[in-house]
Amino acid sequence: MVQKYQSPVRVYKHPFELIMAAYERRFPTCPLIPMFVDSDTVNEFKSEDGAIHVIERRCKLDIDAPRLLKKIAGVDYVYFVQKNSLNSRERTLHIEAHNETFSNRVIINEHCCYTVHPENEDWTCFEQSASLDIKSFFGFESTVEKIAMKQYTSNIKKGKEIIEYYLRQLEEEGITFVPRWTPPSITPSAESSSSSSSSSSKQQAASSTIVIPDAALKEGLSSEALGSPGGAPEPVVGTPDDKLDADYIKRYLGDLTPLQESCLIRLRQWLQETHKGKIPKDEHILRFLRARDFNIDKAREIMCQSLTWRKQHQVDYILDTWNPPQVLQDYYAGGWHHHDKDGRPLYVLRLGQMDTKGLVRALGEEALLRYVLSINEEGLRRCEENTKVFGRPISSWTCLVDLEGLNMRHLWRPGVKALLRIIEVVEANYPETLGRLLILRAPRVFPVLWTLVSPFIDDNTRRKFLIYAGNDYQGPGGLLDYIDKEIIPDFLSGECMCEVPEGGLVPKSLYRTAEELENEDLKLWTESIYQSASVFKGAPHEILIQIVDASSVITWDFDVCKGDIVFNIYHSKRSPQPPKKDSLGAHSITSPGGNNVQLIDKVWQLGRDYSMVESPLICKEGESVQGSHVTRWPGFYILQWKFHSMPACATTNLPRVDDVLASLQVSSHKCKVMYYTEVIGSEDFRGSMTSLESSHSGFSQLSAATTSSSQSHSSSMIS
């Protein structure tokens, strides 16, 4: 497996030229890097104007590895080749390095880049990326991988320290400024002699033993050095909007190891590529990574499921669009109450005083769930505010649960069922948001409740639970260790008045019948404008749109939740037969609206009974796609999501290994999509064909929260 690393952007608040002067002092050897024994210059090139300087070194490293492993490998030192390409005109330094030793067994590539800060020309940015691929190593592949990653991460940590060390050294020598490169002045005599000396300079260049590295041509020699701009490669460092700064990570996200920073950046980049537009906040991405111990694949899977869930139920708007029923405001004994000693927002829940049975009977399970979701959304908002107030990263909150009054009434089966579902939803969509859970005055019945709910709680979350029986919370190691005395609630013998509702029994007059609750629950979770569908191999999902007026606009927005699909649009002058459910009903998904419908009859022929009006669009798992199509004729349009099969190798009938592995990842050849479509009159459609805004369209609101695919379709050109 190839290990990859991507650093954040590290900013030096010094000019580029001064940083280069400090960087050059690392050679031929650096005492601050004990493993860096020596280096020899292999090739060197300088352009005539001095703007381009390319130097290639062979570096000798003493890797900290077990002596037995070195003996088996038959080497004491490892050699790397490093090529530095300095462009003083563009103020960039590109560094490329690869291993020379064991290059047929281990492939190591590294690329580093120093550039000028995009917003302050007196600052310098640094970024690096690397990859490690161990093909084979005498049966010690895993050991070598661990050693390599350990050595690399330790050197990454030292990188900035080394530059700052040499900057201080320069300052001690009185060097605090290095002038920028300026093109040499050309005198008339030099111009007249340039033509006569050109032939001799060519001969001299031809006989020179100095080799011009390829990077010199890429760095600008073939273009800028000869007068045409744009020869330097595209800088790695971008704007602060699309790159993460190391100082920003430390200030707002906390202290991360180099590999944790890399995981965050790589997952963020993947989201930017597949969810073009709005992506989750960095704090939210980091929570999913922490929940899966920084395993990118696992974190990406659960995060994509959560993003789809949030989009389907419009959770992003819950604080602005949903008002809790009065029953919840009066009888739900929970609320926010200042913060703990670590600055985390503090939520107080008087569960023992809450009539869970009455709330479920009066409101239903879905209303309670939605209220808990609004509490979690408010918690995320408060974490952001406290991060700004306290000047340090705060990404979770503390929950104080008072169980005084808990009895068998709270173990009412439907109430426990609702609690378990709430825990399941919160665990899946708000990982690593609970910093600490303080359970106070736990009665004898608590172990029964704990036995029921603990299997549904993640192990990492369970470790954050602190349980106190009776008045133990008042002693050593109790509440005062986590909450300031001034804000301990009055009902816990504290001095602070707590505005959390006291709960109490919900009047039976507010109870509702099972039919009313069922209809209300259905209403709550069918407010989503999205529908879900299953797509099987050989069984696409199709929807029918009838167009009466030509030049109408069909718009769509869909997420590929699982597998890869092909999206098609067809037109027919006659209506298909009534939709028939696919025989694979046993495979249908269970979410609301999950189905598989096929409209195109098997006897229909493409080109005779129906025609394709857009080129097929292949959509990968996790992608969010929006688009539109201007209809040219009235009739029936069919939107189709079809299972995407991996193409076989062109030179052989045997499938490729990658194709087989990819097909195995799609369980039972099943894909899932979540979609929304809408027909807009041409007079109401605003903007370009890939814009989803309309004066009457539901997409007007969606466009602020969902993403526009660069592959969106324009008007049809196929008859």
How would you describe what is shown here?
With 719 residues, the protein is an alpha+beta fold. It has 19 helices and 24 strands. The strands form five sheets. Strands 1, 2, 3, 4, 5, 6, 7 and 8 form an eight-stranded antiparallel β-sheet that branches. Strands 9-10-11-12-13 form a five-stranded mixed β-sheet, with helices on one face. Strands 15, 17, 20, 21 and 23 form a five-stranded antiparallel β-sheet that branches. A hairpin with a 7-residue loop joins strand 7 and strand 8 (124-134). Helix 1 (16-24) packs across helix 3 (141-172), helix 7 (258-274) crosses helix 8 and helix 13 packs across helix 14 (413-429). The radius of gyration is 32 Å and the shape is globular. Interacts with RIGI (via tandem CARD domain); the interaction is direct. Interacts (via GOLD domain) with SLC18A3; the interaction is direct. Interacts with SLC5A7 (via GOLD domain); the interaction is direct. Residues 189-205 have a biased composition (Low complexity). Keywords: Cytoplasm, Golgi apparatus, Immunity, Innate immunity, Phosphoprotein, Signal transduction inhibitor. Residues 526-679 form the GOLD domain. Residues 181-205 are annotated as: Disordered.
